[in-house]
Design brief:
Helix content: 25-40%
CATH topology of the domain at 25-169 and 231-260: Rossmann fold
Strand order of the largest sheet: 4-3-2-5-6-12-11
CATH class of the domain at 25-169 and 231-260: Alpha Beta
Largest sheet: 7 strands, mixed
Distance between the termini: 56 Å
Strand content: 25-35%
Number of helices: 8
Number of strands: 12
CATH superfamily of the domain at 25-169 and 231-260: Vaccinia Virus protein VP39
Length: 271
């Protein structure tokens, strides 16, 4: 994952500390994690609700790759009765995820959910899931890593198991586009965000900008950039097929349904 991040206070404050050492995946979302649940939750809500049916139907296990802060993980746990594996290599996002999954009062959640601080390629969960979920992650990977992700997902799914992922962008934007992430009020502060997407060579650069305002004055600014690789549906289908996965159709809103192929039945031989 290719990420650029920066956070700073208004000019009268001290500069931010340097990013923590470690891999690029481990450093990912160092800036955005603070604002994620405040400004991104609504965009996850529709996807999470659409996954309640598949989660309730799971009979082996569920793996969520790129679990983030747990906005979807919560729903998968609540709708299912099987083990849930939440995979999140980014330390900043995982800190929020663990806090969400282990509230002070405790509860049943800890009996069924396991958090894996690694990438999908490093998992050892062969055949332990009949449902896999991968949201807002695949398009962040360079093509060779993305193809490795499909192989890892095929390995963890039982034959006939389902994978749901969000539709990747199909092409580069013609011109820069800007979209508001909304705003949230907490006490005296208002949190605002926006994302600007633009073409950068063969990729899409998404610049996320966050503002914290108090009484009409900006007290803090933060930004983080991500690179996405566009992928047409036809090319995606070909990549999935190469890993033994079949792109079947769509589940509203904008979720793609993929199934792990079942082995062909052995030919019957007359004795």
């Amino acid at each position: 994952m290719h990420i650029r991040g920066e956070t700073r206070r208004a000019p009268y404050a001290a500069p931010p500390k340097a990013l923590p050492e470690g891999s690029a995946e481990g450093r990912a979302y160092t800036v955005s994690a603070e604002f994620y649940d405040l400004l991104h939750a609504r965009s996850y809500h529709r996807h999470a609700l659409a996954l309640t049916g598949p989660a309730a139907a799971a009979r082996v296990g569920i793996v969520e790759v790129g679990a983030g802060t747990g906005l979807v993980t919560d729903v998968l746990i609540g709708a299912s009765c099987v083990p849930v594996h939440a995979v999140e290599p980014a330390a900043a996002m995982r800190a929020v995820l663990l806090s969400r999954l282990h509230p002070p009062a405790g509860g049943f959640v800890g009996d069924r959910v396991t958090v894996h601080p690694c990438s999908a390629a490093e998992l050892s969960l062969t055949g332990q899931a009949d449902l896999a979920v991968c949201l807002r992650m695949a398009s962040c990977l360079p093509p060779h890593e993305r193809r490795g992700l499909w192989r890892a997902l095929a390995d963890l799914l039982v034959p006939g198991g389902l994978l749901f992922l969000d539709r990747p962008p199909a092409r580069l934007p013609i011109r820069p586009t800007r979209r508001s992430l909304g705003e949230v009020r907490l006490g005296m502060d208002t949190y605002r965000g926006q994302v600007t997407a633009r073409a950068e060579h063969d990729r899409i650069r998404c610049d996320y900008a966050y503002l914290v305002c108090r009484q009409g004055r900006v007290v803090r600014r933060a930004q983080e950039s991500f690179l996405l690789w566009p992928l047409t549906r036809q090319a995606l289908g070909a990549e999935l097929a190469g890993a033994g996965l079949v792109l079947e159709g769509e589940l509203p809103p904008d979720l793609l349904r993929v199934r792990r192929a079942t082995p062909a039945a052995a030919p019957h031989r007359t004795p």
